[in-house]
Amino acid sequence: RPDIKNLKEEMEKQLPESTNSLLTDISRTAERTGMRVYLIGGIVRDLFLERPNDDIDIVVEGNGIDFAEHLRTDYGGSVKMHETFGTASWIHPSGLYIDVTSARLEYYERPASLPDVELSTLSEDLYRRDFTINSMALCLNPEVFGDLVDPFNGQADLRSKTIKVLHNLSFIDDPTRILRAVRFETRFDFLMDKQTESLALNSMARMRDLSAHRIVEEMKRLFKDEDPPGTIKRLFKLTFWQQFGVDDGSAEQSYIHAGQLKMFYEIHKPPAGTKPRWFNYFAIPFFTSKKMYLMSQFSLTKRNNKFLQDIRNLSDMEGVEQIREPGEFHRFLKHYEDEAIIFMIAKENMENEDIITSYLKRRIDMPVFLTGEDLIQEGMKPGPHFRGILLELEVAVLNGEINTRDEAVAWLHENHMK
Ligand code: ATP
């Protein structure tokens, strides 16, 4: 297939009407102000891949803030400036955000890796990007509208399904790019080329220099994509987990656990949602190599801490496999979150998994027939034994033995007030 040189037709065909009309507006302002303006980044790549994307990122050869102001003058809306980076967001009257960046040198420190050759300001901007497939731009000025600028031949790499860095120091400059590479590999079913993969392996130790926050941000995005088990496996190959103390040998077991977790959610569509959260997948390699304590550094929220604590306690619990009634689970699991319970049973592949799911479903909207107040009203003396009584009541409700308040009161008199 010959190289595509202009994507005007593709844009008209693939992008939503609203995006196209915006791009025409931007084009008009580019013409009026005499500035060179480009559409850039993921949206260009996705036009080639025919995947929906309406994230408009604009690069201007010149001052991006000025250009955003021109857009506001021409079409209204407002402008939000990020002065230090020379970027601005134009907020279109419809509420849509459009990022406008300056391809101008004085705003940035020149990266160490940039070669000492004359590049156009646009090429300089592209050179700072991660992979060839993400370093393409489309001209938006009317006379050249849709012309492709592709100095690193991203188009060829798209065709051969290859993720390729722009230069050898790319992962040293920014190790999170390795995680981005894995994300694009799994999402598009691409692969890094040999050179890129070996650079990734050689720079992986740098991952340890990153803040937990940055790693967490990438993990969230990674495990949102289609194939978390495959992602876990790939990250073992690239020695990501190993940097954080996970055993090399737990790769296979982790892969299996992740697959079972994913399947569990697909089959049961459990109450907590239809997908495990990123943190659950992230926990698997640590859990498999019995190193949960090493992941607490990445647990930045209360919810994650509770999850870790639940998993730790559940690992020590015995006797759950023998249970055959939903209510009986309640005695063991009342204080545990759904996701922690599911994490454990998915791993064990337990025979009674259906009963646990029905327990989880029932406990969400379990009716509360009696409270401590009611027990006092019925003439009982308050005390710590109330807790046990109310738990027994919940067990009976979950087992379907008690279905109304009257039945609950009768049960109370029968069992606890004679
Ligand atoms: P997604 O569909 O996941 O949003 P995307 O390619 O649009 O994918 P973004 O993270 O939104 O990804 O980034 C937009 C563009 O910015 C990318 O296409 C890439 O060119 C550039 N970019 C983002 N992060 C980096 C990075 N760490 N290093 C270099 N370039 C980056």
Keywords for this structure?
alpha+beta; 20 helices; two-stranded parallel sheet; Beta Polymerase, domain 2; 4 domains
The residue ranges in which pLDDT falls below 50 over 5 or more consecutive positions are none
CATH topology of the largest domain: Beta Polymerase, domain 2
Overall geometry comes to elongated
CATH-defined superfamily of the largest domain: Beta Polymerase, domain 2
Count of individual helical segments: 20
Q: How far apart are the termini?
A: 87 Å
Helix-strand makeup class: alpha+beta
Largest sheet: 7 strands, mixed
- Overall helicity: 40-55%
Heteromolecules bound: adenosine-5'-triphosphate
Structure description:
This protein has 418 residues and is an alpha+beta fold. It has 4 domains: 8-160, Beta Polymerase, domain 2, CATH 3.30.460; 162-210, Hydrophobic Seed Protein, CATH 1.10.110; 228-364, no CATH class; 372-416, no CATH class. Helices cover 50% and strands 8% of the residues. The strands form 2 sheets. A 7-stranded mixed β-sheet has the order 3-4-5-2-1-6-7, sandwiched between helices. A hairpin with a 4-residue loop joins strand 3 and strand 4 (87-91). The structure holds adenosine-5'-triphosphate. Residues 41-42, 55, 129-130, 134, 174, 176-177, 180 line the site of adenosine-5'-triphosphate (ATP).
